Amino acid sequence: MAAVSLPAFPAPLRWLNEPEGWRADGDDTLVITAAAGTDLFSDPGEPNRYANAPALVGRLDGDFTLSARVRLDLRSTFDAGVLLLYADGDRWAKLCLELSPQGTPTVVSVVTRGVSDDCNSVPMTGEDIRLRVSRVGAAFAFHVAEGAGAWSLIRYFALDGDPEAGFLAQSPTGQGATVRFEDIRYASKRLTDLRNGE
To answer: Which InterPro entries match (predicted)?
Structure first.
């Protein structure tokens, strides 16, 4: 597919997998529909590898923050809207708003270095959830915030390979999912305090 331009994102974007559908709404909103049975996960305990979820990524140089309000109708287990860091098929990380097996919207992070880990962080009760990825020197950070609240650190980690950043939708066990990434914001700045997200 052809490169995608989104005014809120300062670089050309490319598809890793073709979505069921997508559109840009204005300058700072992206809508991606994932088909049934789509995921990005390399199971650490089994030989199963899934890499068919639609993702739109682009290269961001230097320190940065990239955030979005993530909205989706969580209908099936592991349906998720994701901010993604992607170096290659063996090195990537994702920060998800995902439906847990308990039926609760949950912030989940996954870092893959050959195989994936899987860390369920905090259940979310509100409808205004913002996710953020940041590069801080040679490392990366994941944060979450609810509404206009403060950013909370979810994960701080290293990832080799100069990854691209972007957006992913998945529906591993369901019949598909449509994710709205709203109020997309990019800043070429370095976080000065990882713990409070500033």
So the answer is: ConA-like_dom_sf (IPR013320), DUF1349 (IPR009784)
